[in-house]
Every structure is written in C-alpha cells, then in structure tokens.
C-alpha cells in the first residue's frame, strides 16, 4: 500500500515499535490510521502465538467496531464522529458491536478518560483487542496501536492491566519520536 505523506513519518517510527510489541506479547499488533472516515491498517506484525485474522495492510474497517478505531474516535470532535457515522453507518458485525449512537458516545468518553480502548469481540467473535491512541503535541490523534488475541488469552489482569500499560508505554515512545524527529 502506498503510504501517504501525512502518515509516512508515523509509519516509519511506529513500524519498529509495533513489531517489537508483537514479539514481546507473542500476539498480533497493529497500527491503524483514519482516512476518509474509515480505519486503515498501516502495519501488522505477528508474534509467535498470534492468531490468524482477516486484517492486512491497507484493509479498510469501520471505526466504531474496533478497539483501534475507538481509540481514534475518542479523540475526534463530536461533529467529526457524527460526520463519519452518517457517511459509513454503524453496522453490527457481531452481537457485541455498539450500534446505538449515544451508547457509542458514552463508550468513547470512557476510552478518552482511561486512555485505552477495549474491543471485546465487537468486530470478530472470539477476538479481543486492547488499543491506545497516538496523539501528537497539538493533541491531534495521528492513529492508534493495538494488540489482538483470542478471548482465551485476553482475560483478567492481562487484558485490563498488563497490555494497556505496555501499549501506553509504546505509544509514549512513538509520540515522542514523532514530535522530535
């Protein structure tokens, strides 16, 4: 996939960090950016235990039903979110997909407050994701990074504490490197 100029620096910096994240966790790690109201996978890295998914570089996905997308949406103005949802809708892909606008806004408020998005089988049954935004010095969201894996391995402390802390640490490194590169 051709990397647009806006995202080339982010890709160049985040690629290595996301790859290391996959190696350290043993899971699937991704970098997602928003383009034209959809999420676009910019980098995917597979750890030794990573499950196979339908995700691939260049794939476009809805933002409302992924942890990565929620991490991005939570840092966009309400008007922009409404514009995206008016254009692309909020289709359900599993029974856990949020399809109600006010429920989504409530969910995004929690994501913004906690600094982490949890996808609990919202896009793919049996798959969970933990994601955090990448926010620049101007408080503009540039993208999101996340780790995905089967519900059997993404439970309790690992899902709610260990992975979020790791992702926040990696995002901090990416944000600093994009600011000072």
Automatic annotation (TrEMBL):
One of its GO terms (biological process) is negative regulation of DNA-templated transcription. Residues 1-180 form the IclR-ED domain. Coiled coil: none annotated. PROSITE patterns: ICLR_ED. GO terms for molecular function: DNA binding; DNA-binding transcription factor activity. This is IclR family transcriptional regulator. The lineage of its organism: Archaea, Methanobacteriati, Methanobacteriota, Stenosarchaea group, Halobacteria.
């Amino acid at each position: 996939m051709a990397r647009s100029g806006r995202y080339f620096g982010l890709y160049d910096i985040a690629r290595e960090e996301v790859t290391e994240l996959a190696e350290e966790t043993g899971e699937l790690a991704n970098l997602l950016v928003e383009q034209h109201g959809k999420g676009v996978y910019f980098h995917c890295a597979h750890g030794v235990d990573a499950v196979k998914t339908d995700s691939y570089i260049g794939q476009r996905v809805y933002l409302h039903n992924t942890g990565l997308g929620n991490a991005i949406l939570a840092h966009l103005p309400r008007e922009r979110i409404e514009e995206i949802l008016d254009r692309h809708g909020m289709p359900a892909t599993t029974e856990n997909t949020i399809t109600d606008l006010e429920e989504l806004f409530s969910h995004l408020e929690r994501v913004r407050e906690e600094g982490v998005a949890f996808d609990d089988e919202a896009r793919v049954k049996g798959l969970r994701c933990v994601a955090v935004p990448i926010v620049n010095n101007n408080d503009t969201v540039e993208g999101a990074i996340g780790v995905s894996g089967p519900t059997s391995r993404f439970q309790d402390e690992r899902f709610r504490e260990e992975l979020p802390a790791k992702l926040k640490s990696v995002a901090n490194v990416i944000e600093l490197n994009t600011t000072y590169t």
